[in-house]
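Deliverable D2.4 — example input (structure tokens):
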């Protein structure tokens, strides 16, 4: 279950250093992605993996065959034709693009019926499940099944986005940044033109419009999305089968998980009518079959310089792990106090535990000399190619590697302060996030759109306010515990005598101060949030709300750190990486895929087993294996099957495929991505990667790394015979209505 995503752009807050990836709507629970594979074996297993890795070549002709997270407006046509003799028409890609869905809570999904039915993973839908649960009815544990439209429950703040079109706006963005500009001036000019482009697009089309940075600044594309905010829960299995095997089986294969969840999008109070949706394959994927994955991988670091990778190794990952370890301890202790505490903290704790394990494994990779040697060889190869092809460049490249290194040196000097204040690690509270969003919303709304911070641009305000005014429950006891711990961490890192720390604590201990802050805020009242959002900056500053006052207190120093980051770190690095992107384009052409950005990408591969520890691992599991696994573990948690699975075992065809693996190139954010065959039929749904896919953040290998999916045949078998979900099955398997086509090829 490693590929759920934490933030709305699909990245981990500590690891996403871009302005677009930070400070979305910080009041939301920090939901950490499980975008890499956990270490469950001694570190020396890693050498076996690295030994089989072919260095990811800079040339697409030399790259491993199934590598790539490809743009839908630049799919790997040549590779597919040469490798698989497959050359689909343009409308095949367009159909799959518009059948794919992005979740603002993190993850991917797809339309699977003409009436707005959307399928994703249980762990992607967990955010909604958690918010709809109560002490009396725990939807995470019990599951949910709406037998009629009337029983479908609306999620409180779930937004789904469907990509409609892509427009290259690179020239316009680059023309706004003049050669004579300082980095600060360039950053402001770039932000202004991006904000303006998005506002113009929103006004002209009514579609959500985001300028996406690709190749770390090499290209800029305008993505337009159709947005759905009336999203209702239709079906979710029990967590016991969605996450069967729990931590021991997580990030492993064989697997036996029904990690699915169904929602429905509505328009004008009725199920939305969808033109592009995926036909369901009852047969599913077969061994060796070519498959495609259409989803939203969150973030990769394959194009980073070596200095940047070392920064991840020495600063970003260790800092993230320190926080995750302490947050896990705090939440585990809180959960142990009562069943209700455990329910309240369940989703956050689950995400933190998985993220902690994932980052341990990723860090182990970055500490491995063999992997780092491979990345070093990549960089040296590009350097040589740049020298040999200098005549192909319109302007001299200079030394972009040194430019990145210089920016990272500045980044290192402010990193921990930035993380505490601007990234909000010192104020781990949803109510603090609400307060900061309100303070900045009011201040930024008072300046022209072109000058605003990216998350407060006009084109993003509707989505921001949709989350800001959510009625989702926030629990005072959990908020107090988490805020007290984060304030304690602030004191540990800055010292008790630090002037700002003294102001924040106001003469109290971290625990006392946290309790007073939580007790004194009225932001739990959505009506008050709406009133403050419309206030002037002067009126807002007169508020006596404790969280508003805290947000105001730290806003100036936090903004100063952000300004330093954006102007002295982000902008110089963006310019340097743009030069490196230009070099790759000049040398190898445009058939080079960019790093992941939580935007829609196409991956492909084969259903294919692998060899592990000298044993052949078959490409799929069956229901027989599920029951055998439960029995051999005594049918006790986390291998305890839900009662309905025990009672209805005799109804199942136990030879039905359940989970399967493929060589598709995926990463965090791909959770819930549809897996389709050549005909565009849905044959599965991504929910994880195996332990060998650990290295995919940095380097691709198809020797053992595998994407793990739930098989379409297994899903139908379970829905029919375990859940008696006849209405749902009928909708999934219905023939297209007359005049409506589910596939355009």
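Example output (designed residues):
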């Amino acid at each position: 279950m490693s590929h759920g995503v934490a933030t709305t752009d699909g990245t981990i807050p500590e690891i996403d250093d871009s302005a677009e990836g930070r400070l979305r709507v910080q009041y939301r629970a920090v939901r950490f992605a499980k975008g890499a594979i956990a270490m469950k074996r001694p570190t020396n297993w890693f050498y076996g993996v690295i030994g089989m890795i072919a260095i990811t070549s800079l040339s697409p002709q030399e790259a491993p065959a199934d590598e790539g997270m490809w743009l839908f407006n630049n799919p790997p046509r040549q590779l597919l034709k040469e490798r698989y003799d497959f050359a689909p028409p343009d409308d095949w890609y367009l159909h799959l693009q518009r059948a794919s869905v992005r979740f603002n809570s993190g993850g991917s999904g797809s339309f699977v019926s003409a009436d707005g039915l959307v399928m994703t993973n249980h762990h992607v839908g967990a955010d909604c499940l958690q918010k709809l649960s109560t002490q009396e009815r725990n939807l995470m544990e019990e599951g949910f099944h709406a037998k009629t439209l009337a029983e479908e429950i609306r999620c409180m703040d779930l937004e789904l986005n469907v990509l409609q079109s892509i427009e290259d706006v690179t020239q316009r963005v680059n023309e706004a940044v003049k050669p004579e500009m300082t980095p600060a001036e360039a950053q402001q000019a770039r932000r202004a033109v991006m904000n303006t482009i998005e506002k113009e697009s929103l006004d002209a089309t009514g579609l959500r419009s985001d300028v996406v940075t690709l190749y770390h600044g090499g290209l800029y594309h305008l993505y337009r999305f159709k947005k759905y905010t009336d999203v209702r829960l239709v079906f979710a299995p029990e967590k016991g089968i969605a996450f069967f095997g729990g931590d021991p089986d997580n990030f492993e294969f064989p697997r036996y998980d029904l990690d699915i969840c169904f929602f429905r999008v509505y328009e004008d109070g009725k199920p939305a009518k969808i033109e592009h949706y995926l036909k369901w394959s009852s047969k599913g994927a077969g061994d060796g079959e070519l498959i495609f994955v259409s989803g939203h991988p969150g973030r990769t670091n394959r194009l980073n310089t070596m200095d940047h990778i070392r920064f991840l190794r020495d600063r970003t990952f260790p800092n993230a792990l320190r926080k995750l370890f302490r947050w896990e301890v705090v939440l585990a202790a809180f959960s142990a106090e009562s069943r209700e505490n455990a329910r309240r903290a369940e989703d956050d704790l689950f995400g933190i535990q998985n993220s902690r394990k994932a980052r341990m494994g990723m860090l182990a990779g970055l500490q491995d000399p063999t992997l780092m040697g491979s990345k070093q060889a990549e960089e040296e190869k590009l350097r040589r190619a740049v020298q040999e092809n200098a005549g192909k460049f319109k302007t001299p490249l200079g030394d972009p590697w040194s430019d990145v290194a210089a920016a990272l040196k500045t980044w290192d000097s402010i990193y921990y302060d930035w993380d505490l204040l601007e990234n909000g690690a010192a104020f781990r509270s949803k109510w603090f996030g609400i307060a900061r969003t309100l303070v900045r919303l009011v201040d930024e709304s008072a300046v022209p759109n072109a000058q605003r911070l990216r998350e407060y641009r006009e084109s993003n305000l509707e989505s921001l306010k949709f989350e800001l005014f959510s009625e989702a429950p926030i629990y005072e006891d959990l908020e107090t515990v988490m805020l007290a711990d984060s304030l304690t961490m602030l004191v540990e890192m800055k010292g008790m005598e630090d002037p700002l720390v003294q102001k924040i604590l106001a003469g109290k201990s971290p625990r006392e101060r946290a309790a007073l802050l939580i007790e004194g805020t009225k932001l739990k009242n959505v009506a008050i949030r709406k009133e403050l959002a419309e206030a002037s900056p002067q009126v807002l500053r007169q508020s006596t709300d404790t969280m508003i006052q805290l947000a105001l207190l730290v806003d100036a120093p936090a903004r100063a750190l952000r300004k330093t980051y954006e102007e002295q770190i982000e902008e110089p690095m963006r310019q340097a990486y743009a030069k490196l992107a230009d070099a790759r384009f000049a040398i190898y052409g445009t058939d080079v895929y960019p790093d992941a950005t939580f935007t829609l990408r196409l991956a492909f591969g084969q259903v294919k087993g692998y060899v592990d520890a000298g044993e052949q691992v078959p490409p799929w599991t069956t229901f027989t294996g599920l029951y055998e696994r439960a029995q051999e573990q005594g049918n006790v948690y986390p291998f305890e099957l839900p009662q309905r699975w025990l009672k209805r075992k005799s109804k199942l065809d136990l030879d039905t495929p359940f989970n399967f693996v493929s060589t598709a190139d995926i990463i965090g954010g791909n959770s819930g991505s549809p897996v389709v065959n050549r005909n565009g039929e849905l044959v599965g749904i991504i929910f994880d990667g195996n332990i060998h896919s650990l290295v995919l953040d940095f380097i691709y290998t198809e020797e053992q790394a595998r994407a793990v999916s739930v098989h379409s045949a297994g899903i139908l078998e379970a829905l029919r015979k375990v859940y008696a979900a006849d209405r749902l099955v009928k909708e999934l398997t219905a023939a297209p209505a007359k005049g409506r086509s589910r596939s355009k090829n």
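The longest helix spans residues 546-588.
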